[in-house]
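Field: COMPLEX_INPUT
Field: COMPONENT_COUNT = two
Field: RESIDUE_TOTAL = 826
Field: MODE = joint
Values follow.
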Amino acid sequence: MAAGPMALRRAGVVAAAAARGLATRAGRPRHRSPLPRTPWTVRGPPPEVLAELAEPRSVREQVELDTVTYAERLHYVPGLARPRFPAWERGWRDPWHSPGPRYEEMALYKERGCYICHQGVRMLEGVRQAQWLTKTKLVEGLPPAVQGILDNPALGLQELEERAERMVSHARLWDTAEVAPRRERYCPMLFENLIHICRLMSGKFPSLSKRMLARNCRIAATWERESILLQVRGPSGILMNSMTPIPPVASKEEILATKEHVLETFYPIAPTIDLQEVNVYKELNDTGFRDGYPYSHPHTLFLLESANIRTNRFRPEQLRAKMLMFAFGNALAKAKALHGNDPKVLEQPVVVQSIGTDGQLFQFMVFQLNTTDLVSNDGIKNLVWIDSDQNLYERAQCVPEVKKRVVTKPAGISGFQPDTFKKFLALYLHGTV
Amino acid sequence: MAALGARRVLRPGRRWFSETVPGAPAPLAGPLYPPVVASITAKSKAAKSRRLQRFNERVHGAATVEEKLRLYGKLQRPKYMVYPQTFALNADRWYRSFTKTVLVPGMPPRAAAAKPPIAAAGAAETGRAPEPSAEAPGAAEAPGAATAPEPSAGTSLYPDIGELRSLACDALLQESFYQKKKRPFLYRDQDHTPGPFLTQLVSSLASSLSGRNPLLAASSLDLNPEVNYYWHHGNEVVVHGHRKGRVDPVRFQIDDNPHLQIRVPKQLPEVVPLESDLGDVPVIDHKPSKLPLFKKQYENKVFIGFWNEADVTRPFVSQAVVTDGKYFAFFCYQLNTLALTSETIKNNPRKNICWGTDSKPLYDVVEDGDVKGFNDEVLLQLVNFLLNRPKEL
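Field: COMPLEX_OUTPUT
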């Protein structure tokens, strides 16, 4: 079969490449050497091309069609241009076919944009970005007060380990009629079981009964950070409220020492990346509860990543950032409710804890709000203690894995870490014990 | 022929007359022939009952529970889906006839007469999300969890009713007044306020009473669990299809999702002895599809320890609370028998018993951060349920 010169060339290229033992892909030849020297590559593209790249015009404008159209003829005529008619107006407002007010016409429209952090925000820089936005200094590990509860043998945390392991087995293995429960089922169930064990401790510590869980509570907090307006909004997970606030975790010296700390920036990435910018907003500070609520102090925030599909779940770093932002939002709203909206350093710092999990990995966090003066980059900063990536158990096999008729992984929970559950319980007991 | 004849004569080992050979075994005692039983494969009633008997023996003899479940659930035929929360009229009579239950109004008598008014331990159970109060005395609950009400001799510590009342009021106020919520989703009013209120109420009551009831301290709380049971009751003739004309047992399966369930490790003690007869079971001669009840073919879900062939050896008692957030109705169910199929029900004198109250309001109205008309009796009954425990604890 006679092949054209291009086909032959391609065949020759392929044959040559095959002779050299390389697998080549068809495509544009990529320059592996420095670019050839042409006026464009030396002096840059000409100004017309640059202007065109900056502001692309529609094809009609570029070609400058000012031709005769068949609009007056009222029917298509070959050779004449297609007319562009003005948009049809109904003349009256039909509510079923109404586009709605534009952003500029809405009542709450403001020129200055506001960056909102909500439950779906996955920050690129993770905890570093959340630290900059909330003017916080990070301390690795849990604070000494919580460590003290962990190490206190009088609390009898040992007997509960066995119950915790049974709860894990219940949530991960037993609770279904199918083979294995899905994450949307076992993650909340594991959380409920662990909270139930913690709540039953109120038999021993009566002051624990002054706690109340609130689901689907919404939070709103606004603050300004170096001329950027920021907000935390939306449903904030499961919040445990208590009648008495948690005592401050850090000493006065530590708080004063945060003055010297410098917040990390990540130039050239702006700190508001991945936040939703809106022009229609209300500057609101709302704890989600009315005045007179007896359990007025937020104690712990629980964030569960229970989506079945892995891409819908947050990565641990993004989850930690989200936990920090929402704990900060709850603390800020509470502080503003207690002390007013003026930015100042708090004499009584507000402490809010947060636990995030996806059913297996746990992230523990204790946040202390020291100041509501967040505009400038220096001064007293807030503090956060993060204990990240604690596994509660290594693996939960519903069906034993058998390779070549030998059981490689037996069924059941393996690698249960009681320390993670102890930290969970310690964070629950913090503030009353 | 001659050769044959010769063979017949000359075959070695053949004796013309019997001899006693030393060392031969004595004749076997007992029947010489295998027992005469019905065929397995014939199309007859006797053969059908033989097949059924063989199946029962297989299930009895299965080594593990998984094996038993697999055998019992292998054959899927259309069965009636029974919903405890139903809008059908007089469904309670129908359900009582399906499950051979006697309904006794009021609560079971408490053991200790001289008891302080606040005591009595009971494991309170699932609070169902809204159900109209007309249904309250109806529908026998599925025997999902096992907790029985038992009046305990509440001696030293009886809970402070004021504290429990404040817990209940706090939970109610949080859900209905203090927490700022959006409008309820369409037709989902029960998820907006009563559902969270019940969860909060039961979990905080259970945790505060766990010091007094060790059974509660070892309990576990399930939210929205699945409760299923599959059983046979009565006979019917298959109406159409390739199996037309055959006599089949009527199959039922309950699929229920109660709002909340407390499971305890130990059985609650019985209220009345196993063989007691407290009333009559209604007998309904119509087909269940007239209720209305619909058939579907899907998996048989059952947890086998006891089933209709292996009846319960001790009564299973469970408590239930049916509520819509404001009105509460309390029930106590004692399961005495599971043998409800047409063969096993013939010689079975036992009946299941259900005690039930009418629905009473917990409060009158909530306005401006204040609960008006709080009814202590309802809370007391709930606390009694929660504090119920076996005698030995």
